[in-house]
């Protein structure tokens, strides 16, 4: 555990929120995410962290975090963005989805501000990330869309110092706000939770189409590097038909070079009655993704070097070997930061953001405590 000290920032109080409008009946409507919560003064939205106050919208979690940790970038998961490097990761509290299978529910469903023990201004976070030797800062653990104003300010402080920004998000955000949010990001792991409206509606009380629009937007209208993750839940979103439809959509609308991670569910929150995802389901999904023509398909939350590694789409050579989050092999040539690479065996282009060599952070997780001095 690394102990950092930070002043109690004045920004810890509620700050004005963006993306809202006043309604004729006196309420205000939040226009940050497709829920469009309509609130009377004193009420909070479904995410619990945005509230109507004094006739306007406020974000109540600015400058407060549920914790900081230095993770391997592969844990986000991002396999084609600065492989092997450490990422300074943090989240706040609350969420704008209601997933019954949430794997982070103690944070995302928290309505207790006592979860928000650590306080840090944007500059303090960026400085702590630099001191920890990180190349990037990740907005993760809960969905950063709901703390947009804080995330964007932290991202700006990071960019000033040469740090990259990584969003781990379900992508449930309206068009006007997503331009600001994703414009601040350099890489995105977007959670594509399933591929039917019924799944999104019944398990997340959300809509698939909004998430697909966000994926298309990030891929085609921003400079951010995009990867996707689908948590496979037995009997809920893992049929051959659904996986074939999902992977065909990714190939058609995002292209063959957007990495797709299939990860294993474990019983949690309101889905304790469903067993963990068996490895054979992940291998089946991996095969379906490859058969659909996707170049980079991965399994996650299980230990399998074969489906956790990156292969050349041209000659099939293993280019980036991974043992859990440890880089065991590196065959990416002539890469410079911000550039894609190529296969050292046959020269085929490899999509991603690579440096000349892999980072050496390994699989370590290093909690960092920013305490009030
Ligand atoms: S961001 Fe929060 S308050 Fe705003 S519409 Fe979404 S759930 Fe409601």
Automatic annotation (TrEMBL):
InterPro entries: Aldolase_TIM, AmmeMemoSam_rS, Organic_radical-activating, Pyrv-formate_lyase-activ_prd, rSAM, rSAM_sf. [4Fe-4S] cluster binds at residues 95, 99, 102. Binds 1 [4Fe-4S] cluster. The cluster is coordinated with 3 cysteines and an exchangeable S-adenosyl-L-methionine. It holds the Pfam family Radical_SAM. GO terms for molecular function: 4 iron, 4 sulfur cluster binding; catalytic activity; metal ion binding. It comes from the Bacteria. This is AmmeMemoRadiSam system radical SAM enzyme. The gene is amrS.
């Amino acid at each position: 555990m690394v102990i950092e000290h930070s002043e109690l920032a004045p920004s810890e109080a509620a700050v004005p929120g963006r993306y809202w409008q006043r309604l004729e009946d006196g309420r205000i409507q939040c226009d940050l995410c497709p829920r469009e919560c309509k609130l009377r003064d004193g009420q909070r939205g479904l995410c619990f962290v945005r509230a109507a106050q004094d006739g306007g919208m406020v974000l109540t979690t600015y400058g407060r975090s549920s914790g900081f940790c230095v993770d391997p970038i592969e844990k986000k998961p991002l396999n084609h963005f600065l492989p092997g490097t450490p990422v300074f990761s943090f989240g706040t509290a609350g969420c704008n989805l209601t997933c019954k299978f949430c794997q982070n529910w103690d944070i995302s469903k928290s309505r207790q501000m006592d979860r928000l023990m650590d306080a840090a201004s944007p500059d303090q976070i960026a400085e702590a990330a630099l001191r920890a030797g990180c190349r990037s800062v990740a907005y993760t653990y809960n969905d950063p869309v709901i703390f947009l104003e804080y995330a964007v300010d932290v991202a700006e402080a990071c960019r000033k110092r040469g740090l990259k920004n990584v969003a781990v998000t379900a992508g449930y955000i309206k068009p006007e706000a997503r331009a600001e949010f994703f414009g601040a990001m350099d890489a995105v792991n977007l959670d594509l939770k399933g591929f039917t409206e019924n799944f999104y509606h019944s398990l997340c009380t959300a809509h698939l189409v909004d998430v697909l629009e966000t994926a298309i937007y990030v891929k085609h209208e921003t400079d951010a590097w995009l990867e996707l993750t689908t948590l496979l839940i037995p009997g809920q979103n893992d049929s051959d038909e659904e996986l074939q439809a999902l992977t065909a959509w990714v190939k058609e609308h995002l292209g063959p070079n957007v990495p797709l991670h299939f990860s294993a569910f474990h019983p949690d929150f309101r889905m304790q009655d469903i067993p963990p995802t068996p490895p054979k389901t992940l291998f089946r999904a991996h095969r379906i993704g490859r058969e659909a023509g996707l170049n980079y398909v991965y399994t996650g939350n299980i230990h399998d070097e074969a489906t956790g590694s990156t292969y050349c789409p041209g000659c099939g050579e293993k280019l980036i070997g991974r043992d859990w989050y440890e880089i065991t092999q590196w065959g990416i040539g002539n890469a410079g930061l911000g550039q894609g690479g190529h296969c050292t065996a046959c020269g085929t282009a490899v999509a991603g953001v690579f440096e000349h060599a892999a980072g050496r952070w390994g699989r370590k997780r290093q909690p960092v405590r920013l305490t009030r001095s």
